[in-house]
Amino acid sequence: MKRVCLTLFATILAGTAFSLPALGWAAHVNVIELDNQIISPVTQQYLVKAVERSEQDGAECLVVLLDTPGGLLESTRAIVKRLMNARVPVVVYVAPSGARAGSAGVFITLAGHIAAMAPSTNIGAAHPVAVGEGGGPVKKLIKRIKRAAKDEFGKPSKPDEEEIVEEESKDPMADKIINDTVAWVTTIARTRHRNEAWAKKAVTESVSVTEAEAVQEHIVDLIAKDLEDLLQKIDGWPVELPDGTRTLATAEARPATIVMSPREQFLAVITNPNIAYLLMLLGTLGLIFEFTHPGIGFPGIAGLICLILALYAFQALPINYAALALMGIGVLLLIAEVQVVSHGLLALGGVIALTLGSLMLVGHAEPALRISLYVILPTVATLAAIVLFVVQRALRSQTQPVTTGPQGLQGELGTASTNLDPDGMVFVHGELWNATSAAPIRQGERVRVLSVQGLKLTVEKV
Predict the structure, then answer these.
(1) Same domain, 389 and 329
(2) Which end of the chain is more exposed for a tag (fewer CB within 10 A), N or C?
(3) At 24, is the pLDDT very low, low, confident or very high (cuts 50, 70, 90)?
(4) Are residues 201 and 89 in the same domain?
């Protein structure tokens, strides 16, 4: 019995040892990918959950594959706060080749315990673009239109240092945000032992560097050609965590990808400024169609759903509500054009209001966080054409005479089927009717319906 028990015990231990990798107990690193993702509340939730999961499942580290044009300042602050207090090593890897860590990506990269970049990548331009632009409202709008046109049809624009200083000198609130952001990025760089002077310039002067310059300037720690190369190079790297120093053992660790949940993927799609803008206009169009054609139901339901989704997306974007009001006025002017004879003046005003409101809707200087002109121009033109057509048809149908029921028979022409003196039968609208006439009418003569009383017509001779 002792031999049998020892044999069984040894077999169980061997089986358990072989099953450890399958159970996830072998050394592993968690990997998440922000591929051309805007830093928003959705990406914030995704990254924070990945950090928490890596802390719980004993991962050697969490690798963040970063490629972002920037994002919202508040979401960036929440991400950086979680990275600075993470109890698991976080490696921010700007990859693949051609990727960038722009604007918000600079703060996230600096906040990583280890920062790495792939060949042919860049980092920088961390000026807080959500501050706004100097000058009056008209001047702001003109600058925004010029910048949007340049970004869409020419070389992407980036305000130079003189323009930034000029704008900020006219806006005390901008000075406060700049000073606060500079202090914040300096603290991050000092804590992670990175170049503080460059971090300040990235915020105040929007400087940007390549991967080779970033390593030379001590902005990031190393260059790795791919994920496998990265795991080999950071093997044995000491990392300071809140509970002590940990030495990474990633050479033999297996990568485990953490993907976005379907809910997060859906929310990431609708929080794209262009998608949110289209949802809002589709919702508006659906409600207009429902109000002008009551009883259909589907356009109203679909429009309401689109509007609710757009409102959710607007909570995650720097929306200018004055622009929303301007777009609403534009739609009302298009509707008024059908009812008021203005020779196209109201329609022109509606199109201009819609276009200007669309340009001002997302108050962000970063091109990736603005609505594209390639979306605005065809969308406004299509919406204007559809609204004018639908409303015009609806109003025309309401002014047309009734063609059904008793009222539809008034004025109809028919033929006397019998003599009417004063009562008889007439053939009207494909049916035989009892009829009466004030004057005698012979059989076969043409008659016109004057009124309908129950199932009896009052007619006259034509």
Answers:
(1) yes
(2) N
(3) very low
(4) yes
